[in-house]
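Trying the structure run again after the queue cleared.
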Amino acid sequence: MLRWIDVIKYAKYSNPEPSRRVEKTEAEWQRHLTPQQFEVLRRKGTEPPYRNAYCKSYDPGVYVCAGCGTPLFNSTEKYHAISGWPSFTQPIAKGALKYLFDDSHHMQRIEAQCNTCDGHLGHVFPDGPAPHGLRFCINSESMVRLAEPEQQDGENA
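Done. Tokens:
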């Protein structure tokens, strides 16, 4: 379980090593991403609150990075935070995200990025629900939800 103190330590000292890296030129990212995804993931933009794909969606599945396909969040960790953006309590794995101090816009925040491609996802705050106390406030444009495969009759889990 990731805690706020862990997020601070990662941002201050060193983030977990990613299992792989994806690096592209700016032109390659522009060809690979939609203009909205490029603005969020590569230019650290923010989509409008409440008018985004996953704000009010609670379908089961796994949310992956729109840039590189790295699994980021499981839908079981998604909750209604009334923030205007999809919110999660925990990342899918310890090394899925990396954390950076962000002093932009006259605020002190912790930015959450994809640890594989350095794509901007959103921010993490210490005001989430118990027991974790974390709120990962993430732009919908930075993710793609992959539906959980349906189990066929007679298949073993």
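Residues 4-15+50-147 form a domain with the Metal Binding Protein, Guanine Nucleotide Exchange Factor; Chain A fold (CATH 2.170.150.20). Worth checking whether this holds up in the mutant runs.
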